[in-house]
Fold this sequence. Notes:
The structure holds two protein chains of two kinds. By secondary structure, chain A is mainly alpha-helical.
Amino acid sequence: xxxxxxxxxxxxxxxxxxxxxxxxxxxxxxxxxxxxxxxxxxxxxxxxxxxxxxxxxxxxxxxxxxxxxxxxxxxxxxxxxxxxxxxxxxxxxxxxxxxxxxxxxxxxxxxxxxxxxxxxxxxxxxxxxxxxxxxxxxxxxxxxxxxxxxxxxxxxxxxxxxxxxxxxxxxxxxxxxxxxxxxxxxxxxxx
Amino acid sequence: xxxxxxxxxxxxxxxxxxxxxxxxxxxxxxxxxxxxxxxxxxxxxxxxxxxxxxxxxxxxxxxxxxxxxxxxxxxxxxxxxxxxxxxxxxxxxxxxxxxxxxxxxxxxxxxxxxxxxxxxxxxxxxxxxxxxxxxxxxxxxxxxxxxxxxxxxxxxxxxxxxxxxxxxxxxx
Lengths: 191, 172
């Protein structure tokens, strides 16, 4: 529903600004162009998106997700000690993080939900500190290969679509650290 | 030879070799997995049609520029290019919307420009916060979310500032 408000707001504001600025004929043309641009973008980024989905599938089959899961266990045990006492929650959590890293959103979400459900047992509808931490970790995405973005860049003729990787990693790490710190600090002030 | 140009071919070769070493049917796994990309593509196509239409109209009317200018002193102060203002607002709310606004910035300024790169890094390093919160807490039956939203939005804000900072650090 939120998006309905955003969309309607943008269209109505475009109309108002179009009339006020005398750009209304451009606004009409832009509506047609925008719809066409969406399809063009999808076609030109389709190849790279499919290729990397395939590569990720091979990596997953090779056991890279399991390897990453093992790597992240100690970190998760420090961030969410209570939840990680439960073996099943811990394995769902670590698989969730490693799928997120590989950009396997469709695989990551059900695993995260599974962990969240177990962690919510007995919480009576109120988020515990560790549940908040789980959700904050998932909202601050850490992705090793942001393939969709690379696809967009390739579609518009970037010389090297993946050259933003180090910047993406740095920004992701800083954002996750900020999220963890904020969750830790704010948890003291909310009941 | 720089790191990122080596990355793609090396990653493909290593993945294929490790797969072969583990007796994985690399080729059919690849083609099967590529189908997932197709469903992602189909999933974003229709939202992009709706949202890019709105973004194009918004920009053509001059409204985008108006709001960007309104915010620009604040954004400049924290190191974020004001051209990306619209992206900051739509990113936590809608993944498709962010992709539409971001790709429009990349198209307009060029994928290898400062603005284009900042938009790409912002897209790559943040998530659709409100959607994620709704999915997780919805399915876990949580009604009182406590400090989750402020903490997640802090992460987003730091992610945006860090995106601009990281692009300047690595490219300029």
